[in-house]
Write a structure and sequence with these properties.
Elements (H helix, E strand, L loop, with lengths): L4 H4 L8 E5 L2 E5 L5 H7 L6 E2 L6 E2 L12 E4 L2 E5 L10 E3 L1 E2 L10
Parallel strand pairs: 1-7, 3-8
Antiparallel strand pairs: 1-2, 3-4, 5-6, 5-7
The chain binds FE2/S2 (inorganic) cluster (FES).
FE2/S2 (inorganic) cluster binds next to loops.
Length: 105
């Protein structure tokens, strides 16, 4: 039997629903964070750094490092490790500071 976080905790979550990541549907379980839902699909990066454009995803998983930032439902700089993957949530990869609309060079 494959060991998963849910099996280790003997969790019995309800049926999966769907969030959207860069236009593609991603299954998510009730109570799962956005970062956990992306990880479960093998997606490890959803942000690029401001200076070098290097890929980033979840690192600490507890809201301390800010590596997991993404644009969520149109709001940039959201920590995906802290946000629940609610049905219909739209997540977009964030480039740099995530505020291209402000023209911050
Ligand atoms: S992974 Fe560190 S703040 Fe989200």
């Amino acid at each position: 039997m494959r060991r998963t976080p849910a099996s280790l905790a003997a969790a019995e979550p309800g049926p999966a629903h769907t969030i959207e990541f860069d236009g593609r549907p991603i299954p998510a379980l009730p109570g799962q964070s956005i970062a956990a839902a992306l990880w479960a699909q093998g997606i490890l990066a959803w942000r690029s750094t401001r200076i070098a454009g290097r890929p980033r995803g979840a690192f600490c998983g507890i809201g301390a490092c800010y590596d997991c930032l993404a644009t969520v439902d149109g709001q940039p700089n959201q920590r995906t490790c802290l946000l629940p993957a609610a049905p219909g949530t739209t997540v977009t990869t964030q480039e740099g500071h995530g505020r291209a609309d402000l023209d911050l060079a």
